[in-house]
Each structure stands twice: as structure tokens, then as C-alpha cells.
Amino acid sequence: MRTLDFVSLRLFAVVIEHGNIAQASRVNGIAASAISKRISDLEDQIGVALIHRLRDGIRPTAAGQVLYEHVRGINSAVDRLQADLSEFTTGERGRIRLWANTSAVTQFLPEDLKVYVDQRPAVRIELREDTSARIIEAVRDGTADIGIFSGHIGQTDLEQRIYRRDTLMVIVPSGHALADAKAVTIRDLENYDHVGLQVGSSLQAKVLEAAREAGVEINLRVHVFGFDGIRRMVEAGLGIAILPQGAVLPYLDSRSLRAVPLDEPWANRTLYVAYRDYRALPLVARYLVETLAPLA
């Protein structure tokens, strides 16, 4: 058997983890046809089918599952090798792939990243804003070095530290029936149109989950991607919304919005910094973890 191509093996593993060649194509920025060709070449080289190609994705064969487990071990070994070699540098240069949810990007990261960049100006940080679920996937499959996500997403198999805590509030347009309320619960919000984040947002999923548990129906009139879009939609009178405190209070000077405390236990959230293996992180990425979430 000829020597197996490491790039093809890595792409094969990403396809297995996503269960879909098209998704692996988007994550890696490589044409789906090129990835499919690499997998076919692997199958020809090994002499056995590695995936079942289905209408809605792929499924590994028994041989494909064995190969995937070995590739995961190879990837971990390469990560550790890179981390060990980074110890021989000063940790002043490099690249960090950081994925973070909207709450972190909007409220906390600008100031925290400024502290880090001031100390290590030669380090390049590639920041991507995404949903918590996709951030966890990106860290797990190695697309991101570090991820920041909401604890609402539940338990993960990643190493993690507490990054920040925030509090959810309700924002309403000025003159709204709830504008002068001292506090509200999810039940108080049932009879109003809502503006929410896009599908996949852990915040929006938590709101809908809490509503179901309370027997409340939430009418999501508009979905948008970011907090700025939500605030503008609420200002325009298209509905009310639930947002983190840090994405609300700095924007109340316009007098077109009002903030109301949300009296629910789940309104207090925790944001986490996560990574696959701290020891396997390049030195520059470890420094960023320590900046964002230093151990006590």
C-alpha cells in the first residue's frame, strides 16, 4: 500500500464528523467535488469502501469507522507535536482561530482581545462569530483552536473554563405595555410578538425551551442574525426581545427602548472558553486562554 496522504485523511475525518461532504466543503473552503475525489482515491488505494453515500449525507462503513478512529489519533498526535515545538519559540508570533458566540463578541471580547493584542502584536487572531452549537463542533473537529459559547448548550466533551457571566433582560419599545414593569417572567411575554436570533442560537433555543416548560407559546415574528438587528427591530415596533444585559443597557440613551428585568432562574447565564486539549494548544493560544479565563 502506498503512503496515505495526510490531507486526504484529515478531510475524510471532517466528512465523517459532519456526516456530509457539502458541509465539510464549507468548513474547509474546498470544493465538494475535490473532497469526494480524495475520498474515492483513498478507497481505491486501500481497496475497500470507506463511506456509504446517501441522499442526505454519508455514513461510514465498518472500515471507514476504523480509519476514522486512527485519523483522530493522528490529529491529536500532530496537535501535541505542534504544541511541544511551540515551546521552543517565544510565543510572540502565530495565528489563533477563535470562534465566539454573539454574546461574547458583543459584550466582552473587544476589550479582552485588546489586552492580548497589546501584549503580543505579532499574533494574528482570526475571529469568527457563530452559534454556540457550531462553535463546539468547530473546536471538536479542529476548525477552531478556541471557542466561546453559552452554558445553555449543555455538557460537552471539551476542556473548558468559565469565561464570563451575564444576565438576560427583556427589551421593549418605548410606550409598550411592559415598559414600566418592575420585572417580568416568561409567562408575561406570551401575548406579544417577539424578535429572535437565527435558528441555532443557544439563547433563542433556551427561551423557547423555557416557554415550552411553562406552557407558553412564543410568537417569533422576525428572526435576525445579531443583537444590533434585534434592537433595531424592537425600536421599529416589530416585537419585544430577550437579550443579555451588556447588549441592552449601553443602548438605552436613545429613549426608544426600555429594559425590563427578566425574573427567571435561567436568566443568569455562564459563558465558557473551550478547547480540545490545553497541552496541545500552541503557546500563543494558551496565552490567550490565560488572558480570557485565568485560573484562580
From TrEMBL:
| Keywords on record | DNA-binding, Transcription, Transcription regulation
Give the HTH lysR-type domain ranges: 4-61
Residues passing through the membrane, by range:
none
- Superkingdom assignment: Bacteria
Q: Which SUPFAM superfamilies match?
A: Periplasmic binding protein-like II, Winged helix' DNA-binding domain
Q: Does the keyword Transcription regulation apply?
A: yes
Query: What does the record give as the function of this protein?
Result: NodD regulates the expression of the nodABCFE genes which encode other nodulation proteins. NodD is also a negative regulator of its own expression. Binds flavonoids as inducers.
- Name the protein family: Belongs to the LysR transcriptional regulatory family.
The protein depicted here goes by the name: LysR family transcriptional regulator
- Give the organism the record lists: Bradyrhizobium denitrificans
